[in-house]
Amino acid sequence: xxxxxxxxxxxxxxxxxxxxxxxxxxxxxxxxxxxxxxxxxxxxxxxxxxxxxxxxxxxxxxxxxxxxxxxxxxxxxxxxxxxxxxxxxxxxxxxxxxxxxxxxxxxxxxxxxxxxxxxxxxxxxxxxxxxxxxxxxxxxxxxxxxxxxxxxxxxxxxxxxxxxxxxxxxxxxxxxxxxxxxxxx
Length: 185
Hints:
- The chain is mostly helical.
- It is about 70% helix and about 0% strand.
- The protein has 6 helices and no strands.
- α3 packs parallel to α6 (about 150-185).
- It is globular.
């Protein structure tokens, strides 16, 4: 009996498809270690606050900043290994050729979506990094510690969306090339 739940050969559709995807995948695996750091500093905060009655001013904002940046990067990471949200109820029931056309549609919509969000994120970065007169001034949190984390998170959002735009374009080209090659075989 064939084991459909645990196939012996790995699913190549969930592997990085190009050099950019491989770089995003490797870098994502590396920076995922920051989650351990976030847990460690959060544990430190709990000990300092409830055992020594000496809360920190930096842990909450640092943990929020790291978590936010890692969450944003997760979009590019998921796209790099084809783990993004998909309506599998339809996708798994159609032929390979129809799946390719659904992928083309997905990549075109992803291009449009990431382009529009990149433009909005660029405007956010402009507002949070520069004064109306064009001088560099990073937006800060306004807390007692007052780090520039809000501006840096907005920069991360813009950078990640720009990378995702390139990813969608590369995936679209690969999908169209795959369709073209199948038509000529």
